[in-house]
Design goal:
Elements: H1 2-27, H2 37-47, E1 58-59, E2 62-63, H3 65-75, H4 84-90, E3 92-94, E4 104-107, E5 116-122, E6 125-128, E7 137-140, H5 144-149, E8 150-155
Antiparallel strand pairs: 1-2, 3-8, 4-5, 4-8, 5-6, 6-7
Helix pairs in contact: 2-3
Length: 157
């Protein structure tokens, strides 16, 4: 039993160091490489159209906006935080000029804090879970309501 711990400990230390390095590069503004995951995230997000909104939900029975992001990314093997605030805090910042399908769009719906997120799917459209009584849907970024409240974009892959 003791020898197993001796073998596992160095692996745990290496993983911790790699995690620390990734957070340092994020703060330095380096973008992660784009992979095939972005198209898979878009496909999953599109497949969720029609799922009912459910505050705190992250399943096919119902989901909120950050639950949709968490669900879609988890399906492609990318661990994304569960709340809008932590998603924004941990995403690599992306300018709107660099926006790619699969990136996240963050919105301020009231006040100064970011309180809504959607998945950009290309052609100025995004998938999101709007609010209670609605279903996951596609919305145009050029819609005046959303355009006025756009706070930025981020990337996780």
């Amino acid at each position: 039993m003791k020898s197993r711990h001796v073998r596992v400990f160095p692996l745990m230390v290496a993983m911790a160091l790699l995690a620390a390095c990734s957070s340092v590069s994020q703060r330095a503004g380096a973008l992660p490489p784009v992979s095939g995951s972005h198209s898979a995230v878009v496909d999953i997000a599109r497949s969720l159209i029609g799922v009912p909104y459910r505050f705190g939900g992250a399943s096919l029975r119902g989901m909120d906006c950050s639950g949709l992001v968490h669900y879609a990314y988890r399906k492609v093997g990318v661990n994304v935080p569960r709340t809008v605030a932590t998603q924004r805090q941990n995403a690599f910042s992306v300018s709107l000029a660099e926006l790619q399908a699969g990136d996240l769009l963050f919105f301020r719906l009231g006040g100064r804090r970011v309180s809504h997120v959607g998945i950009y799917i290309g052609e100025q459209q995004f998938v999101h879970a709007p609010r209670t009584g609605k279903r996951v849907s596609i919305t145009r970024l050029s819609n005046k309501y959303w355009e006025k409240r756009l706070a930025g974009a981020g990337r996780f892959y």
